[in-house]
Amino acid sequence: MKDPKAPQAPSKDTLQISRRDLLSIGSGVALAGVTLGPNPAWAGPSKPLPQVPRRVLGKTKQTVPILLFGGAVKLDPRFDPKMAEALRFGVDYFDAADCYGGGTCEAAVGAFHQRAKVRDKIWITSKSDAHSPEGMASTFDVSLQKLRTDRLDMYFLHALKDPAHLSKEMERKVALLKKQGKLRFFGFSSHHGNVVEMLHAAAKLPWIDAVMFRYNFRQYGDAELNKAIDAAKKADVGLIAMKTQGSEASFRTRWAPFEKTGRWNKHQAVLKAVWQDERISAAVSHMDTFDKLRENIAAAVDNNKLTQVEREALEQYAQATRGAACHGCDHHCNSAVDAPVQIADTLRLLMYHDVYKEPDKALRLFSALPESARKLTGIDFSGASSACPHGVDVVAEMRRASDVFRC
Ligand code: SF4
Questions:
Q1: Which range of residues forms the domain containing residue 224?
Q2: What's the predicted TM-score (pTM) here?
């Protein structure tokens, strides 16, 4: 029987982002030069909508939109209209994970494509938090079930920190899944401070098709990271940027002067800055509201590059908020503290609390850290503040973490 409370598939009239909307969102974004492709399946035979441009994703040789729909947000478990709307503008790549949404993301993506009948029109990536070959294979089977599909386009080892997990045995498991027709492509995501090491590892392994890694406007002058990106690009590894906003710690009080640079707000500007790097195929964005979805699509369909003035404003923004963003490189700071702390992990969870507004998730993940890493009081963090090359006030941030996580 039909559930009367179930959300209805959105009509074109209620959910369509009109061309006028897009123009106003972009504050006069010139749509000249925007590729007008056919409407995706969801749209039906109406007038063509601007479509998000596409790029080839490395050795997969497949094209993906430069803007990917990130699933680390609360999705409607029965039918999420934001996904439908994204698809209308060509955002047909959905990035899930076994753990996103407290474990509900995959089921929501599965419900969406089944109800919209678009499985053949979309790309689904998911991820495993288990990094052993057996763990990955068993999580993969659960992912297939939850996603209501018999094949995945891409599977990542999620937040991989140790390259030793990219073993021969893992390669064999991946080859078997591909041979069975259950998986098209494989790779990993890299969240930690060793992105450089992980990109070089990927460059040496022909069976790693793509890597999703932390990359944002704060890192453009990072020579080691640039070399690693070059090596991965040369090996034809598909490169996807994540955490493009670069807000690894709360810096809301310092946002205000940079809220808008030229035509774009700062969220749009940092995405455009990433897309200007031709080595990067796409950027994933966790768009939890229609406003963010509209803004990001408006930025993506606009072919104009950031102007010199806008680039300079972004650079000033990076400089002004430099000491408020943690880069995850805790090999610098952890060892400067006489206790088994996990500074980067703690600050990342503080960001979930402050910036992503996910206090429950932040608390749950913090509770999962080793007990010794959760003890934040009575510890002298001043050595970590001095050791941090990015100027993060670790003393103040850990004091705040202690208040937020009540430990
Ligand atoms: S506090 Fe500084 S040194 Fe420590 S992980 Fe963050 S950015 Fe790196």
A1: 3-314
A2: 0.78
